[in-house]
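Re: export button greyed out
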Amino acid sequence: MSDQTILEVKDLKKYFSIGKKQLVHAVDGVSFRLDRGKTLGLVGESGCGKSTCARTIIRMYDVTGGSIVLDGTDITNMNQKELKPLRRKMQMIFQDPYASLNARMTVRDIIAEPLIAHNVVKNKAESTDLVYAMLDQVGLTKEHANRYAHEFSGGQRQRVGIARALILQPELVICDEPISALDVSIQAQVINLLKDFQEEKGVSYLFIAHDLSMVRYVSDDVGVMYLGQLVEMAESDEIYQHPLHPYTKGLLGSIPIANPALARQKKKSSIEGDIPSPIHPPTGCRFHTRCPYAKPECSQAAAPLKDVGGGHMVACHLY
Ligand code: SF4
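Workaround output, generated via the alternate export path:
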């Protein structure tokens, strides 16, 4: 692992037991590396395992298999006490800022809480200047500090969630669909805020989203997940200009397009059918039940994720 790497995930697995010896294979062998100051977007349909992957990396869940190395430290099997000092380095921004903010705390207390928990300051009074500076950075004012979460709009609440995540100056922020619950007009503002902070502080983002157009704008690299596995990964522009995996092509075909002629042409490549159950994932390539190019061998063996040139990785027997 080079000094440039902030996060390295190898063959990560997260299964959930749902009784009667049945397992949900939510994340099943995901590997990637994220460098300092960079953003990796993870995309896929809902149920593809991208959020579970993020929550396993931040160790909200125990790990079933594989490894997670944060800034050179293996955190795979650390308990919560061991993880506590490392939480300063790794923070999370949630999809629903309303649910993730304590309704009984003022914004000032919400943002100050991590500072006190990590002994950056001794008490609330000492945190005031830092909290006001952070509010200013996320486009709020100190007048907002004594209000409660329900008094804010969705966009403002997400700014509070971002302020809380960034106040410790983490090196890695896991953004779990941070703009999905926001109006389109607010989404760009929040994205710009995250990008500004990255330019200023060199923070890295793992950015989970199903909105492909926004992921392109925000990410250096993009990984596409299907049924708990990465099926394609490349630099952001490369994956949008030259998608290889049939699933990625299908996802890109489902992006709404203003030009009707282009939209008709793209629609032909949209994906048919529903995502199969992660309890009994299909054998071989997991996409074979929906893939228009499936060959007999596709249901027998999965193609490994391999570099087909210039760091463009794809898992498909066509390549
Ligand atoms: Fe389709 Fe086969 Fe490629 Fe899977 S391996 S995406 S089924 S062509």
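The domain at 5-89+170-314 is CATH 3.40.50.300 (Rossmann fold). The button fix ships in the next patch.
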